Amino acid sequence: MSPSGPQAAFDRWRYAGVFLLLFLFGTETFLVSPLLPTIADDIHVSESAAAQSVTAYVLVYAVTAPFLGLLSDRVGRRRTLLAGTALFLLANAAAALSTGLALLIVSRALAGLAAAAAGPAIWAHIAETAPERVRGRALGLGMALFSCGQVVGVPLGGLLAGATGWRSAFLALAIGTAAAVPLLLRQVTGVPTAAAPAPAGGALGAVLAAWKHPALRRALAVNTAFHAANLGAYTFLGVVLVDRFDLTVSALGLVGVLVGAGSVAGSLLGGRLGDRARAAGRHHLPLLPVWGLLLAAGIALSAAGPGLVLALLGVTVWFVASGGFVIDQQTLAGTAAPDLRATSSAWLTSTMYAGTGLGAWAVGAFDDAGTGTLVIGAGLALASALAALAVTAGLRRGTRAAAETGQDGEATAPAPAADEAVRP
């Protein structure tokens, strides 16, 4: 199959606006944690009280994302994306003007609402408009830029906050968002999304429709288990490394760079390998189980590998697997049910947060963080790899059945999207 045609037509600059927004979202997600002591001291509250601003962002995103994903599927990507972007700009401007905890928490909650509106719309927009042969690569580049928010954006925000105060970091996010608006207006068209029949149960039924789709239901279950291992165990990574190797705070900061760099590499690698697999006729996300196995290996090395070098290698492998897995999942959400693209993407994020909370609770139940990380992290990673085999097998059976009957299968056969046919 020749690489010409759709692949040759792939234009990365066409997505400059949404890629910039993903970078800013990645920075926003991780920015507050290193600034907590400074923020708490400045507004005269405890660090635990200031941490409520982090909880507000994550909780609002997790709860509202599926409903706002449905809104994107119903009213279109452009409207939802632009509304979310405008709210994100205002929320960060409000954070920059905060003089007390109440306004900071409200502004962070609004930022979570804005990201919950724009994020699923972005992933759906990329899946609908990127040429089929490079769809995974386009999604991978978007996720890599989101991860760059942690690797590049957070350190830059920290430097800016150190030089001119923590509010300037939020002001910079607002200015960056304003810079993305002209690009979004020009690059995100108002092409309508695929029409979907209204499910029984009204809006709630529509929000839950992804769970009624067999392939998506299995994928969301795998997503929950994977991130219970991945981000749940990551909650205690700093504790594990300090206990094992007595690392300083500065050294832990360098570990954070490894985490971000691994995520970037995994996102780019996952997108490229996925595109190659699909070009060869393997349309069933064959790498999902591989990422689960790599995650188990990375966590085991980090928690129990002999020596600091192997432990840091484990951290890198851990987050290469994390980045690659997320891209495979976003590809599935974007192609398994075209009429549920944004809703499915939103559920991926919600189940990611749910899995993170469940995994962190399970690891924390152990007296020793290293033992909990090894048992829960590696164990759930292996379980997610086995469950991913079932997802892959189910997609393969669906495609085979559709090919034999000559009928379009919702989960696997080509289905009309906004501007082209899509196929997982």
From TrEMBL:
Q: Identify one Gene Ontology CC term for this UniProt entry.
A: plasma membrane
A GO molecular function term, named singly, is:
transmembrane transporter activity
Report how it sits in the membrane.
Multi-pass membrane protein
Q: Which PROSITE patterns match?
A: MFS, SUGAR_TRANSPORT_1
Q: Where are the transmembrane segments?
A: 12-37, 49-69, 81-103, 109-126, 138-160, 166-185, 220-242, 248-273, 285-303, 309-327, 347-366, 372-395
Q: Where is this region: Disordered?
A: 401-424
Task: Provide the protein's localization.
Answer: Cell membrane
Per UniProt, the keywords (alphabetical) are:
Cell membrane, Membrane, Transmembrane, Transmembrane helix
The yes or no answer to whether the keyword Cell membrane is present is yes
Pfam families given in the database record: MFS_1
- UniProt cross-references to Gene3D superfamilies, sorted A to Z: MFS general substrate transporter like domains
Residue ranges constituting the Major facilitator superfamily (MFS) profile domain according to the UniProt record: 14-396
| Family matches, as PANTHER family | CHLORAMPHENICOL EFFLUX PUMP RV0191, PURINE EFFLUX PUMP PBUE
Protein name, UniProt field: MFS transporter
